[in-house]
Amino acid sequence: MTQPLVERLAGRGRRLVATLIDMLLVPALAVLLIMITGVVEHAEDYRNAMWMVYVFLLAVLSYLILNGYWLYTRGQTVGKRVMGIAIVDAASGERAAFWRLIGVRALFFPLLFVVVSPVLAVLPIVDQAFVFRKSRRCVHDLAAGTSVVNV
Description:
Strand content: 5-15%
Low-confidence stretches: none
Largest sheet: 2 strands, antiparallel
Radius of gyration: 17 Å
Distance between the termini: 15 Å
Number of strands: 2
Strand order of the largest sheet: 1-2
Number of helices: 8
């Protein structure tokens, strides 16, 4: 008999540390990719806004390079794997569909690095603050229909 989902919910501290690990690794790889590709190497690269699109795409690519395999096979980012937690479907408690992990949840991660206006800078904080609710589900969990549990 499996434990009910609510008894398996990952602790807020584990989720925070997992997020912090991902917040360090993903941008580090993104910066490396930016340096390798030379997207913003010269002053004239900043003449138009296309450099922001390239940087954003490299950030998404770095997220997929680091987390794509683990998300697909285990429902985990690198940080979640280190912390022993995983993403599951909130309704069934089973592994969440890959399209939800990439197509819905992963859309929130780049918001941590894209600051177009001060109003948008608050969105990641609001998203993460939802973990303090009883269900421990952030906004991106609610949008994707997922929960994070101990494994």
